[in-house]
Request: fold
Amino acid sequence: MVKRVVLGTLAVFVAWSVLDMVFHSLILGPSYQATAHLWRPMEEMNMGGMYIVGFIAALLFTCFYTIAVNPKSFGNGVKFGMMFGLTTGFSMGFGTYIVMPITLIIAVVWFVGTVIESVVGGMLVGKIVKQDR
Reply:
């Protein structure tokens, strides 16, 4: 099971990293430029730290699935990902919108992007992390 958790974590981390580039660079790049006063300049951002946080999040996501979901299956992985994404995406996107002057488009893309990333993560762990026999 440990090997599957490691493989699942790596798969989720890679998928989330790629999707983050799509959402944050391609889709939200212009919105971030328009609200540049809200963000650290690129040269002050800690990219290594961002990858560490992303890896730990992928590990925790995979561990939550491994511990909480039975039976382990592709379908249950998708359901887990959807619930995880709705919960975290709603609070991340709209919770931040309430307390910080981000645009509504940023809030919506953070919400939708988190749901998509979580469903993809659920699909991956559902396929990779199987029951021991």
